[in-house]
Amino acid sequence: MSLLEGKTAVITGSSGGIGRGIARTFADHGASVVVADISEEPREGGTPTHELLQEEGAESMYVECDVSDYDDCVAAVEAADEFGGIDVMVNNAGIVGPQDPLVDIDLEDYRNLISINLDGVVHGSKAAALAMLEQGVHGSIVNMSSVAGITGFGGITPYSAAKGGVRSFTYALASELGPDGIRVNAVHPGIIETTMTTEDSPFVGTEQEEKMLPTIPLRRVGQPEDVAGVVTFLASDLASYVTAESVIVDGGQLNTQ
Description:
This protein is of the alpha/beta class. It has one domain (8-193, 223-252): NAD(P)-binding Rossmann-like Domain (Rossmann fold). Helix content is 40%, strand content 14%. It is built from nine helices and seven strands; from the N terminus they run βαβαβαβααβαβαααβ. Strands 3-2-1-4-5-6-7 form a seven-stranded parallel beta sheet, sandwiched between helices. Helix 1 (17-28) packs across helix 9 (224-235). Pfam families: adh_short_C2. Residues 7-194 form the Ketoreductase domain. Belongs to the short-chain dehydrogenases/reductases (SDR) family. InterPro entries: KR_dom, NAD(P)-bd_dom_sf, Sc_DH/Rdtase_CS, SDR_fam.
């Protein structure tokens, strides 16, 4: 069943990690995909996402996009016109940022994280909403938050603040855009195996992971495809009456502690 046949999606931060998983799943379900990222090359190596999708028979293109720059987000949304105009916006780009107690954090590092993890979501959402309203599209915006956006984690305080902001922003925007038929939802991943959790903030493959696994009901860390399935549902017409919602994708950990 092709859930996104005939739809065009812009996915930020989709050269690698969770975004790449979302792009591949969207393409599998018939979507045309604009890969919007600051770099074309996947951090984990391999074929660039848009080329991989093209090889698999999907319509796809790459657009260089720094989500902290609103004009870049506008350009990424405009690129979707190549495939008939935007139907789905996935604001996925993000960084883990400083991992120290707040009293030790350089405020410039904090501002950089906010500019990507929170401002980037605002920029992408505004650019997408304007285009959807102009086209008269009953579209879907999916914002990537985190379990840290629901319960704060010490040591990644700026990250928690930004992701909590994404959650509240999602609810507020859903209220604004609902009358125009545009849905806005948030996804909150737990530990997902990407370069963020193996290199930027090493967890997967460490003793820390071994100690945490018993606290996860499904007894494993997540994969990008686990998040991608949820995002695909929210982007599709199967979720036509779902907006202002948060979906946790963490193997059941947060709600069973």
